[in-house]
TrEMBL record:
Residues 698-707 have a biased composition (Low complexity). Residues 359-384 form the EF-hand domain. This is EF-hand domain-containing protein. Residues 708-724 have a biased composition (Acidic residues). Residues 665-684, 692-743 are annotated as: Disordered. Residues 667-684, 730-743 have a biased composition (Polar residues). PROSITE patterns: EF_HAND_1, EF_HAND_2. InterPro entries: EF_Hand_1_Ca_BS (IPR018247), EF_hand_dom (IPR002048). GO terms for molecular function: calcium ion binding.
Length: 743
């Protein structure tokens, strides 16, 4: 806990030295730190509250809400500060052991039960805000209602805090957890939610003023459409329902489902929290190998770490070489001379396949594999597969599948372009023409991604001399595709349309941040559905898509933009990591995951798809963040400095209460590691194929994107002269010092 307090002190110093205006990036960093430190304090609060059922339930609810908030890509500052109100109240559990519980048990029971209900209500509000109101214009129109909700949660939390303090004050000296100034600071920050600060918001505010008030706007579809247009967006059927509903009705509609999920989640979060101290002691008393779930790999990891002077993360190449001697094969059946998965040995013996396995494990692509990454890799093994089969699939089956699927996508794009161009030529409606042109630009951009094999020199014949069981590999490939099919269909529906960004959230539990795992097969499914939608049910009908209106063209385009946005964002994150490591970005792009990002990177670096990329980056503004003010910055919220200071004090008290459970631990500096690797292959089959099949439509554009190499910050240490050894031409550098979760 000492290190956590030092980090808070550093954050306070940085905030105190900063100007009254700051960048959006700094704002995001600050809110993330606050959430992390509150979460740390909650873990200790639960250790103290364990003997009190009423307090324990509320603490676990707060823990789950924090876990959900931290899992979100972007956090709203106005929501984050409310967690401070909850935390300062819940951290009063540190005084429970000093009080005569029999005399005040009834009052405390009632207070913590009420607090639990408030936090559940807040969780529903946060869920609706982040998922159902994700679009910028929807959030703007609902901001005033959310502001009132958040202020209510804050005031009620502090009211309960005062009641708990009053009950405890007769038995023990209670340090005041919050003052009226604390409440004012939080309410002041929350009040920023409905304020119009960007040009778009100010323009929208003028429309609202002309229409009357916000209630009139929410019920007027024409006015809603005008405001959406100001934000560069359109109204969907879902957003109409959301805006027409009163916020309380909307929250009530989603409450039951959220509470059910929350209750289920608290069962697992209880186990996580209750095992917190024991987990830390395991880390203190033994090496990282004890955190490996698989027993055989645990021993292997221990031996490797010992030989590497105790480094917590292993180079992927070392791990894979050692894995050849460790893999647990299937048991023999009947009179079989060998296990059924013995065929995988013929794949493992070829070192050229090892980089692909390493990429599948190393989700941040640093060239090092942490315990967390390795456990996560094994956890997602399809049911019925053995570990050798899992390794064999990622060694060979996945890339062959993606190579073939890329050709299928190219075929679909050209067929859809033909239909779209015909529709464009035959319509006289300006809105339809504009929507089709936007759709064609995005389709053309998809072809840049399918050119990855040309950019990397991938040779599809490189496995011809490898004596592996093709039927077994095909079985694994089909089973893997089938296991994801239902999930993909849930995301896209029958018509290949994704109206809301939140629909992609269903991919996160299975794939995490690894867009490269789902992008190609999901795009294939979307394009197949969209082509079917364009052609209609009647195969004999003209292929001119005359029945598709401008809204439908827009949503087909928006769907592909969402998928491209995820792919582009993932690539930019990787580029930042390689830039920090001082690695050659082009080499790493051509290497990582078989070079899947190579085609997109080529177009990105050359500027040939700059119009689409500009649209994707504007999409990020409208979907995920509050836009910057007109001068490019956002208002400073210095009150958060004081909130962090209060949090520091609360965590300090909690630390003292459980100090006997923990030994002092020196935790390595956090390093936001990012990915790397390469296949030494050749071939220009895709380029020749595409040159022969390209349709009439092509996107124009030129220029060089100035940020093609990415940028970023990193706390880790890297030595440029450290020689990589991951096979082929994959580059590495230096020593990775991971975060606590990695070892």
């Amino acid at each position: 806990m000492e290190e956590a307090l030092n980090k808070v002190n550093k954050l306070i110093a940085e905030e105190g030295a900063s100007s009254k205006r700051k960048t959006k990036e700094k704002s995001n960093q600050r809110t993330r730190k606050i959430l992390e430190y509150i979460q740390q304090g909650v873990a200790f609060a639960d250790a103290i509250a364990g003997m009190n059922d009423y307090a324990g339930v509320a603490v676990k609810t707060l823990a789950k809400l924090l876990e959900c908030e931290i899992a979100r890509r972007k956090n709203s500052e106005e929501f984050v500060v409310v967690y401070q109100a909850f935390a300062s109240t819940m951290f009063l559990v540190r005084y429970l052991e000093q009080a005569d519980m029999e005399d005040i048990q009834g009052e405390l029971d009632h207070c913590f039960d009420e607090m639990n209900n408030i936090m559940q209500d807040f969780g529903v509000s946060a869920e609706v805000y982040y998922t159902k109101c994700r679009r910028a214009f929807v959030r703007f129109l609902k901001a005033k209602a959310f502001e009132e909700e958040l202020k209510g949660f804050t005031e009620r939390a502090y009211e309960i805090q005062e009641r708990i303090q009053s009950a405890l004050s007769s038995y023990t000296a209670v340090t005041v957890a919050a003052t009226s100034e604390d409440i004012k600071r939080i309410l002041s920050i929350v009040s920023n939610l409905p304020k119009a600060t960007t040009k778009q918001e100010k323009d929208a505010e003028k429309i609202i003023q002309e229409a009357g008030d916000i209630e009139d706007v929410d019920m007027n579809d024409a006015t809603i459409a005008a405001i959406a247009k100001v934000f560069g967006d359109r109204v969907t059927s879902e957003t109409k329902v959301i805006l027409h509903q009163d916020l309380h009705e909307l929250l009530e509609k989603h409450r039951e489902n959220f509470i059910t999920k929350l209750n289920e989640a608290t069962l697992t979060i209880s186990t996580k929290i209750e095992g917190f101290q024991g987990e830390v002691m395991r880390k203190l008393n033994s090496g990282p190998h004890n955190l490996i779930d698989n027993e055989e790999f645990k021993k292997m990891w221990q031996d490797l770490v010992s030989s590497m002077a105790g480094k917590p993360a292993l180079k992927a190449s070392y791990l894979l070489m050692a894995s050849n001697n460790v893999n647990t094969f299937a048991e023999q059946n009947g009179n079989e001379h060998f296990p059924r998965d013995n065929w995988t040995l013929s794949v493992f013996t070829y070192v050229m396949f090892h980089p692909a396995i390493g990429d599948a494990i190393d989700d941040d692509g640093s060239g090092y594999v942490s315990v967390r990454e390795f456990n996560n890799f094994l956890k997602h093994k399809p049911e019925g597969w053995t570990v050798p089969e899992l390794f064999a699939f990622w060694a060979l089956g996945w890339q062959v599948s993606v190579y073939n699927t890329s050709f299928e996508i190219a075929e679909l794009v050209w067929e859809i372009e033909e239909v779209a161009l015909t529709a464009k030529a035959e319509t006289q409606e300006g809105d339809v023409v504009a929507a089709i042109e936007a759709y064609l630009r995005v389709l053309n951009a998809l072809l840049d991604i399918t050119r990855w094999s040309t950019a990397t020199g991938y040779d599809e014949t490189f496995t011809e001399d490898v004596p592996y069981n093709h039927e077994e590999m095909e079985r694994l490939t089909e089973e893997y595709a089938t296991s994801n099919q239902e999930l993909f269909h849930e995301v896209t529906g029958d018509d290949g349309i994704i109206e809301e960004y939140s629909s992609l959230d269903g991919l996160t539990p299975r794939f995490g941040s690894r867009v490269e795992l789902w992008f190609i097969p999901l795009v294939l499914e979307v394009l197949q559905s969209q082509l079917h939608k364009l052609l209609g049910e009647d195969d004999s009908a003209p292929r001119n898509a005359a029945h598709i209106n401008d809204d439908e063209w827009f949503y087909m385009c928006f769907t592909l933009e969402l998928l491209l946005f995820e792919f582009h964002t993932r690539m930019k994150n990787l580029l930042r990591g390689w830039h920090v490591q001082k690695l050659d970005s082009r080499l790493q792009v051509n290497s990582f995951f078989g070079g899947l990002f190579a085609g997109w990177f080529e177009a990105y670096a050359s500027g040939s798809n700059k119009k689409v990329i500009a649209q994707l980056e504007s999409l990020e503004e409208s979907l995920e963040e509050d836009e910057p003010e007109e001068d490019g910055s956002t208002p400073e919220a210095p009150d958060l400095v004081a909130l962090v200071s209060d949090l520091q004090e609360s965590v300090k008290h909690l630390t003292a209460m459980v100090q006997s459970l923990l030994e002092k631990q020196a935790t390595p500096a956090t390093n936001d590691r990012q990915p790397t690797y390469q296949a030494n292959t050749r071939g220009d089959n895709m380029q020749a194929y595409q040159n022969n099949r390209r349709g009439q439509y092509s996107n124009s554009g030129n220029g060089q994107d100035s940020d093609s190499n990415g940028d970023g910050d990193d706390d880790g240490e890297y030595n440029d002269d450290d020689e990589g050894s991951y096979g082929g031409t994959r580059q590495y550098s230096g020593t990775y010092t991971g975060n606590e979760d990695d070892y």
